[in-house]
Design the sequence.
């Protein structure tokens, strides 16, 4: 007997039978939903870390021109960090603060 070779398989979607109105109705679905939420949060956190490293690299490489050259990376990083983390509040990311919309001028 041995271990299976390859990547561990898991379902990447939220469970279909989870009822948010009555989460304790199906404890298995509740645990699957909790695992799904934690997995998605970790993915968002790791994406933000990758963007943070890109911003650091851009600042170091561009030097005095970093304000113009790295602006797009900083915006991506700030958008990626909006609403992620392990706070007690379960607010949706859109409710975490005013998001400034860009106005395109011609």
Sequence:
């Amino acid at each position: 007997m041995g271990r299976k070779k390859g990547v561990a398989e898991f379902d990447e979607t939220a469970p279909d039978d989870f009822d948010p109105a009555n989460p304790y109705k199906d404890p298995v679905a509740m645990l699957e939903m909790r695992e799904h939420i934690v997995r998605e949060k970790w993915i968002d956190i790791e994406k933000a870390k990758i963007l943070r490293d890109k911003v650091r690299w851009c600042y170091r490489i561009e030097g005095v021109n970093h304000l113009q050259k790295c602006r797009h990376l900083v915006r991506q990083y700030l958008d990626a960090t909006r609403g992620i983390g392990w706070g007690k509040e379960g607010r949706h990311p859109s409710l975490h603060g005013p998001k400034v919309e860009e106005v395109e001028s011609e």
